[in-house]
């Protein structure tokens, strides 16, 4: 975890909790980063007095040892807990609906911008009645984040160029552009 990440996460968490918003934290697949962050959140709220996972934070990740995946999803989706959901990109990016989430705090830049969009779309689903806010945290003076961001822009530009001829209105005829050698 990069220096300075935890204070930023706590600041965003504090703002969201004051506005009674549900929080969804997509993060990298580092095995125990969710545990570390949940300890800090509970320390921030309760002074490290409580068992962090049962009282405050739901964790949905490949390495979650404390609860099973369906119970965590159920608890977050049904709103039986106001706890934030800590999710890894691998588990939270596809195939689940998290409409109760209204704040997304992305703690790292991902190589694939489409994975970021998929993670945001977990909360932006039919039935979402709140405005969803997305916060992307960048490490200060990080050449890695800068390099990944530039790579994302190049990939997105290339993807747009490839897809542009294929995107059309239903009534428009299909036009296949000539291939250049």
From TrEMBL:
InterPro entries: Helicase_C-like, P-loop_NTPase, SNF2/RAD54-like_C. Signal peptide: none annotated. GO terms for molecular function: hydrolase activity. The keyword Amino-acid biosynthesis does not apply. It holds the Pfam family Helicase_C. Keywords: Hydrolase. Residues 71-127 form the Helicase C-terminal domain. This is P-loop containing nucleoside triphosphate hydrolase protein. The lineage of its organism: Eukaryota, Fungi, Dikarya, Ascomycota, Pezizomycotina.
